[in-house]
Amino acid sequence: MAAGSIVGRSAGDRLILGAVILLAIVWLVPVVWVTALSFKPNAELMFSTASVLHPPYTLKNYTDILASSGVFRWLFNSAVVAAGTTAGTLVLSSLAGYGFARTEFPGRTLVFVLVLIGLAIPEQAVIIARHQIFSDLKMHNTYAALILPGLSIPFGVFLMTQYFKAIPRELDEAAMLDNASRFQIFWRVILPLTIPAQATLGIFTFLTAWNDYLWPLISATRPEMFTLTVGIASTQTNFAQSEGLGFLMAQAVFAGLPVFVVYLFFQKYIIRAVAGAAIR
């Protein structure tokens, strides 16, 4: 029975591994295809995309992107907005989550319900009101206008609240016996235990802010304040899809490359975050 169980488990593990490899290939094929198209001359692609399988190849599509005078400014703007939004979200969501999970105050349940209702409201539903607010405050074309709307993420508050609730309250009580203040308990005892949740929320927030297109398109009207997504889109011609397919694919690769670099540097933390979230 033991030998049969081991054999069965081994066969099941192989099936799972095979399925994972197959899904990885399915996911990689479009990425490889887009990358290959980005190195093809646009003139070749006008006739057939099948020419991607053989030379000639060129770097002209990427040099055309770099030739744009504002591309590095747009890259810097995206980095500032994504980093600022991520840092602000982690701070506010952690404080709010701790407040909902570990403290008692009048109307706590009602306020938390209102936060959850925010999960059901799409960004497009409030975009006009948001534009009017920042317009009245004369804050458009500033980093503050690009960052502040991204800080209101109900998902982050919900995630951190649930994570804080899972931490035993005995830790708070033990710290209080040592005359620790409420902030010391939060900062030194409870917050370090939420690193997996912090990493998960940080990754989600960074990717969302980096790939955001709608709000930067509305708020940033000056080229020097464009984010990378808006700036690259502004360089496209009216006939880009028919005459500049390789250039379009190069834009897609260029915009996604910084995220890939971030993943390489923070791969260990990302895996730890996903594993920690799965265990939870």
TrEMBL record:
Its main location: membrane. The chain crosses the membrane at residues 15-39, 74-98, 110-131, 143-164, 185-207, 245-266. It is a multi-pass membrane protein. Residues 75-266 form the ABC transmembrane type-1 domain. The keyword Transmembrane applies. InterPro entries: MetI-like, MetI-like_sf. It comes from the Bacteria. Belongs to the binding-protein-dependent transport system permease family. This is sn-glycerol-3-phosphate transport system permease protein UgpE. It comes from Labrys wisconsinensis. The lineage of its organism: Bacteria, Pseudomonadati, Pseudomonadota, Alphaproteobacteria, Hyphomicrobiales.
